[in-house]
Amino acid sequence: MIIYYFVLIISLIFYFIQKDKRVPSVSLFFCFMLAIALFVGLGDMIGGYDRYIYGEVFDSIADEMRGKGNISSLFYLVNGKEYGYFVWQIIVSVFTPNRYIFILVTTLTIYYLFFRVMRRYMLDYPLAVIVFMGMLFYFTMTYLRAVFAIAILWQGIRYIWERKFWKYAFFVVLAASFHTSILIALVMYFIPIKRYSKKTIIIWLILCFVAGMTPLPNIILANAGSLTEKNTGEVNAYELQEQGFRIEYVLEVLFFIWLIFKNYNKIDTDKRTLTFLNMTIVLCFILLFFMRFGQGGRFAWPFYIGVFYIIPYLVSKNKTSLPLTSIVLVVFSLLFIRISIAWESLNVPYTTFLTNGTPAGDGKIFNKYEYDLNYVDDKFYRPAFDIAL
Known about the structure:
By secondary structure, this protein is mainly α. The protein is built from 20 helices and no strands.
């Protein structure tokens, strides 16, 4: 796992190099995001099950594109109404039939979209990067459709405070065509853009906490459509499985709310800042509501951009003797380490697909989902077609 911690160290170095710059270097930020994207995109099946499923589905589409060309016969591969991701696979398959290249191209595209939105809206993207590493980085290794949908959604985030409903709705619908769970982000447009009282926020936090202890989240998850990459009874049962009291969700909420309330009166009332503030608060509501369901927490992902913005913003507003910057660095570094430990069996040892051999991770997943062992000897092998890239 050392190489994963090295990624965190690089992120911290980037932060310390840029933190005192009045205008951080966009070029250096781009190079950093590109390096992280390459690390994720070149990884050989890191994340396990999900990448194998993505690869298998893409192989089917690429084979059909080079065979009969009857794409309509593959509509059964579409999850619900998520045709956007289906079309994306068709587009990439025109240029390459290789599943590893597909994952790399998809990852690079996702990270470019992240770079674009963070450069445009983050007031302090060196610190926002550390928050990103602690909250979203590991998910970009595994949940490609979900993070792609988030990256698309965030391109239209400004239309919330600009009050341009149809433009915002366009990005929501486009993102939902990659992952339907993104539809929850539509609610942000209808939340009045204002600074709510602490009392109101606390009341809603308590209500969400209480509701999270009831069967209501289970009912919502059961009727929210597919949240996973393959619509099987086995996977749906996993999605709906109660995973106990997720204390980490509660601790995250307490930290975010403490940070916000501590500097609440210093928050400006411009519409952009209030939008990101309210997104962070809504994220807290969702985490408490789904605190017994790890997969339910995915509904909070579209709102992460609020945290990426508001935490560096609050740090810049802090005028007390409290070392808030150090606290943020430690907290999100610990979040990164916690996920690293939890995912260790899936992601070690790290290898790229440029090197032949057995992929990293759990051998049981490899034995179950690697449908052609010839990939071990040649990562550019194609079982149906002998096509050079």
